[in-house]
Amino acid sequence: MSTLELNYQNVLQRLQLACSQNNRPAQSVRLLAVSKTKPAAMVEAVYALGQRSFGENYLQDGMDKITALSHLTDIEWHFIGPLQSNKTRPVAEHFQWVETVDRDKIARRLSEQRPATLPALNVLVQVNISAEEQKAGVLPAQAHALCTLVSELPNLCLRGLMCIPEATDNEERLRTQLEAMQALYQQLAAEFPAMDTLSMGMSGDLELAIACGSSEIRIGTDIFGARDYPANN
């Protein structure tokens, strides 16, 4: 078994165990393999193991892989990095999901630039649940307004919320933020029926995120190894 396959199987086992410990079916949590900076060959190797959803942070890096792997017709590409307004068109044209929508302008441009021949672009609104000044995302109090806009735009489908909680070793502090995120999600999902995704949790807090209701875990290093840094994005 290759290191890549071993890593992937270990992550799946962690996910399944966390679901079992919280009385949740394993299929209630999607694994998003964060393939940023990694070559297309590694993505295809993980695809061959059964993985279908892949996350990209860097636009050019992601576009290179989308092109190289265009023969994999059921692969699902999620854009999970910060998105500048002058780079929305290729995301709207080539990705199936955008998880980092945090302002009206980005949402409007994605809707305008989504080709009519494609299904609606799946959108997660990014929430700055820890209220850190340097962090992207709307504050919880602003989430409803942005969700309303996304739900009304013709070529977008509001699927849920995403967050990156505070980087802290204080588990109770982290749990408080994840539970607040779950409560916000439940409140909004009651109003927006297409919402079915709460994306929170990475390698270090996978188990806690699942205990707090996450339905998508974003894992990069624990599958692909330490990241490389693309020269130009």
Automatic annotation (TrEMBL):
<dbReference type="Pfam" id="PF01168">
    <property type="entry name" value="Ala_racemase_N"/>
</dbReference>
<dbReference type="InterPro" id="IPR029066">
    <property type="entry name" value="PLP-binding_barrel"/>
</dbReference>
<feature type="domain" description="Alanine racemase N-terminal">
    <location>
        <begin position="27"/>
        <end position="227"/>
    </location>
</feature>
<dbReference type="InterPro" id="IPR001608">
    <property type="entry name" value="Ala_racemase_N"/>
</dbReference>
<keyword id="KW-0663">Pyridoxal phosphate</keyword>
<protein>
    <recommendedName>
        <fullName>Pyridoxal phosphate homeostasis protein</fullName>
    </recommendedName>
</protein>
<comment type="function">
    <text>Pyridoxal 5'-phosphate (PLP)-binding protein, which is involved in PLP homeostasis.</text>
</comment>
<comment type="similarity">
    <text>Belongs to the pyridoxal phosphate-binding protein YggS/PROSC family.</text>
</comment>
<feature type="modified residue" description="N6-(pyridoxal phosphate)lysine">
    <location>
        <position position="36"/>
    </location>
</feature>
<dbReference type="InterPro" id="IPR011078">
    <property type="entry name" value="PyrdxlP_homeostasis"/>
</dbReference>
